[in-house]
Amino acid sequence: MTHLLLQAGAEGAMSFLPLIMIVLVMYLFFFRPQMKRQKEEGKFRSEVAKGNRVVLTSGIHGKILEVGDTHIVLETENSRLKVEKSAISKELSAQYQSK
Prior knowledge:
Elements (H helix, E strand, L loop, with lengths): L1 H14 L1 H30 L6 E4 L4 E7 L3 E5 L4 E5 L3 E4 L1 H6 L1
Antiparallel strand pairs: 1-2, 1-5, 2-3, 3-4
């Protein structure tokens, strides 16, 4: 009798194995890379400095004039914009130095 209960318990646990594998694969291929990307973006945004040339998520190009805790002041062709740091998409300083 005990042998049958152990066998039934093992079969029940084995039926959850595919679900556990799916969750593991989703974590490895979706959640973990996304968390890593967010961590890198946060580090990048905290390291921006005055004089860097950047592109905002809206496509606006400019040079950073001032850096605050949560915002930057960006100089474009004819104006100055105060924007959130989270709006920075990428840095272009290296491109401008090579030209």
